[in-house]
Amino acid sequence: MTDSPSPSSQLGRPCPHRALLTLPAQEAHVSAARHFAADLLTAWSVPASERDSAVLIVDELATNAAQYGRERMTLQLVLHDGTLHIVVTDSGKAVERHRPDIAPDEHGRGTGIVQYLAQSTQVHQTRSGREVRACLRCSP
Length: 140
Known about the structure:
Elements: H1 7-11, E1 18-24, H2 30-43, H3 48-68, E2 72-80, E3 83-90, H4 110-117, E4 120-125, E5 130-137
């Protein structure tokens, strides 16, 4: 759960540090999401260590969205009051937790990485897919 005010309430407010990127849900587009986030956070003067953590979070969430989403994935970044809200949505179904056909050393670490780096994470299943939120404290 989040330890800051609800991300959804903050994401709906006008904010000068807000960006949205929608891409096809394909692994080939994950690097575009990662570069978009890196360039944007540089422009927003997010310090390098926090920017690196945020880009890694974006990479992991976009990779999951590309693997499990059917049509599109959307990356939303909002920097508000020292907190970076990273929201990735996709048009996929709920993720199966255990996949016996995939060796545990090859997959499954991304969620742990995101939870380690972020101050809070949330996953919501929506009518049209899945939404994953991660919040990271940043000092712009």
